[in-house]
Amino acid sequence: MFNDIGPLELVTIVVLAVLVFGPEKLPKMIQDVTRTIRKIREFSESAKADIREELGPEFKDFEFEDLNPKTFIRKQLDNDELGLKEIRNGFDLKKEMAEVTDAVHGRESESTSSSSSSSSAGSTGGTVDMTKKREKLAPQERPPFDADAT
């Protein structure tokens, strides 16, 4: 319940409580607060039991924590009826990014070079091979203008 309170905050709360309520009234206040918290917990547990009873036997394994989206998604990923782990493991993001950067810089990556060698064997003479390496330019020379690329 109080997971975010550290030792320094706890000491500060105790000192403030002693200053505000005084050492005489502090034990009574602590008892009142704990009694109130206990009643709130009992009320929430009885409300949960009533809801489970009203839902019927088909929802006997229903947990209110499942309504939290993070818990729901975690349970669904662990269940894996949809094959989500296979889909997630099927993506190799580093490989995809390497292929994109190679294509941008005009280099051939390993996967495109193997696919282009097989595809270039059956290509017609009218198509332009996009995986061809660019020719090196002199340091002050500008690249040729391509109207279709702009």
From TrEMBL:
It comes from the Bacteria. Its main location: membrane. It is a single-pass membrane protein. Residues 99-150 are annotated as: Disordered. The chain crosses the membrane at residues 6-22. GO terms for biological process: protein transport by the Tat complex. One of its GO terms (cellular component) is TAT protein transport complex. Residues 99-110, 130-150 have a biased composition (Basic and acidic residues). It is found in: Cell membrane; Membrane. One of its GO terms (molecular function) is protein transmembrane transporter activity. InterPro entries: TatA/B/E (IPR003369), TatB (IPR018448). Keywords: Cell membrane, Membrane, Protein transport, Translocation, Transmembrane, Transmembrane helix, Transport. It holds the Pfam family TatA_B_E. The keyword Aminoacyl-tRNA synthetase does not apply. Part of the twin-arginine translocation (Tat) system that transports large folded proteins containing a characteristic twin-arginine motif in their signal peptide across membranes. Together with TatC, TatB is part of a receptor directly interacting with Tat signal peptides. TatB may form an oligomeric binding site that transiently accommodates folded Tat precursor proteins before their translocation. NCBIfam families: PRK01371.1-1 (NF002374), PRK01371.1-4 (NF002377). HAMAP family: TatB (MF_00237). The Tat system comprises two distinct complexes: a TatABC complex, containing multiple copies of TatA, TatB and TatC subunits, and a separate TatA complex, containing only TatA subunits. Substrates initially bind to the TatABC complex, which probably triggers association of the separate TatA complex to form the active translocon. Belongs to the TatB family. This is Sec-independent protein translocase protein TatB. It comes from Streptomyces liliiviolaceus. The lineage of its organism: Bacteria, Bacillati, Actinomycetota, Actinomycetes, Kitasatosporales.
